[in-house]
Structures are given as C-alpha cells and as structure tokens.
What does this fold into?
Amino acid sequence: MDYKIGVISGDGIGPEIVAEAKKVLDAVGKIYGISFNYTEILMGGISIDKTGKPLTEEAIADAKASDAVLMGSIGGNTATSPWYQLPPSLRPEAGLLALRKALKLFANLRPALLYPQLKEACPLRDEIVGDGFDMIIVRELTGGLYFGARKTEEIDGRITATDTLTYNEDEIRRIARKAFDVASRRRKKLTSVDKANVLDSSRLWRKIVEEVAGDYPQVAYEHMLVDNAAMQLVKDPGQFDVILTENMFGDILSDEASMLTGSIGMLASASLNETKFGLYEPSGGSAPDIAGQGIANPIATILSAAMMLRFSLDQDRAADAIGAAVAGTLEEGYRTADIMPQRETRGIRQVSTCEMGDLICQRLV
It folds into this structure.
C-alpha cells in the first residue's frame, strides 16, 4: 500500500521529533509492505519567515491532497520571538486554527497512557494506578462555548461579559459516532461526560448520545457529570477506556489526564474530520529552549504516527507494532531526559532524540 503523507515539521523541536516519527514509519512500512510518500508543508513560524503568512493556500491544498498529515510543533517563545510582535491573525498558531477549519477537523482524540515502566512519574499513589492505565479522550473540537457568540458591554453601569454555549444535534451526533467507533476498536466501554443536571446543552448531549448508543450494542456506555469525572480521574483512572465530551470539558479533562502520565512528551493526539482524514501531532509545544540539543522526547510524535496508521490508514497491525516497540524500549530502561527518574535507578539509561528513534525501530516486529 502506498500513502501520501503531508508533513508539517514546524518550529522548535518539531523537525527533530518528526524526523524520528518518519524513521519509525519507514521501518514499520518495510515490515508490513507499506510505503509513504512525504510532502513537506510549511506552517507556523517557519512559514511566516519564508512566505510572510502562518499558512498559505498552497499549504492547505497540499494537506487536502494527502491521506493524512503528520505534524511536529509550531510557534516559539512568546516573550522573545518576533512572531509574537505580529497581529494575532498572523502569528504561528493562527495557521493551525486556519488549517483545522479548512480541513473540517471536529474530533480531537487525546490518549492518556501510563506505561508500567513510568509509574514513578505519575503523581498518584501506586495503589491507585496499579499497573498503569490506558484511556482516550474524544473531544468535540469546533462547537460549544469556545465558538459561541460572545460580547462585552456595559449594563446598568457595570461591565458585563457574555459567552454563549451552543450545540446542535448534528454536531453532537457526529462526535458521538466517532467516539463509539473508537470504543468499538478498544475495550468497548464509553463514558459520556456532561453537566446535564444544570445545562440544556448537556441534556441535549445526553439525549443524542443515547440515540447513537443504540447503533453500537457491543459498546457499554455510561453518563458521568463533569465534576465527578474530574474527581474519578485522580481516584481511579483505570476505570476509563473512552471518554466522550464537549469542547471545554474536553480541554480541561485532557490536560488533567495528561499530567497523570508523568510527561507531556509521551502524549499523542489526532484531529479528525468526517472521513478517515486526520491531522496527527504530539500534545506538547515547540520547546524552543531545547531545540537542536538532541534531548527532545520523540515518543509522542511516534505514537501520533501510530494513531495515523490506525485511524486514517486502517493499518492496525503496524500501529500495534509501534506501540509494542515503544513499550519494549521503555521496558529495557531507555529514557529521554524528560522521563528520567529523579533519583538514580539501576538499569536506566538516558538517550538522545535520535537514539530513541533508532531503539524503537530496532524493536519493531
């Protein structure tokens, strides 16, 4: 099988971590008879430097012509970068927002996986995390409070700000279907998070989720209020498989879940549209302070590439092989700087960005 992959290396550590993800993709491709044709796409700070814009029409066209897009990171240090002296519409992040809109990406998938080998990096007690946990948060990405009407005005002599939270049934139905599809490929358990005891939008959310659930009898599902979900994440994270929720709740809960894994350098993510097309990227930022030093953790980007294989390209065996190779590398004691134990631990060895990519390639089967 041949696939066209758009590649946005981006800024900061982006080129370094994307290089390792491509290395792993090419290695697993040789094993499973898959080939990747990469098209480099400019976006973010590097695009501003070369074209004066964070995203060009040519870049959008190249992304649309791809089977999927793999991205590193964009932006720089907001305190010192000249990019942040520009108007907001011309800053690096504006390119990402414009690309998401152009590609109609409405579903954000954010796995939170704690490997047993990294238990000590988790802030929770051992008896809570057990042998680790493996969940994925499916967040609606284009509706809700962040995209509703907003205004600030003076009423009766006081400044008043208003933000509107709006969802329609079609928006809820499509994200629910995406989440149930994901759950059906995992452990077949879904938790829908809302605030139905207070919000009309959440009551509609719950109604539509129940309708969609009827089409997935193989998936067990439950409803959970968002405040309880936040508590349960730190009380018993292992109970979750797939968490489905709206935009703001997903923003908050995914950040909470990410801290339980010990390092954001381990966290992959995907943004999908209504087809199999997706944009795959690590959850962390561009980390310009460590760019070029060879110490960035490429695992999140490598796992994002594995998500691309699974969700956009239907190459589950290759995706599983990458996941197993990452786990095996960690099991043998190899770590990048961000996941090194705070105390000296026998058998643990720090490796560079490039070395981590090589080690994962060597363990692919």
User: Anything to note?
Assistant: The mean pLDDT is 95. The CA atoms of residues 236 and 298 lie 28 Å apart. The first strand starts at residue 2 and ends at 10. The two ends are 18 Å apart (CA to CA).
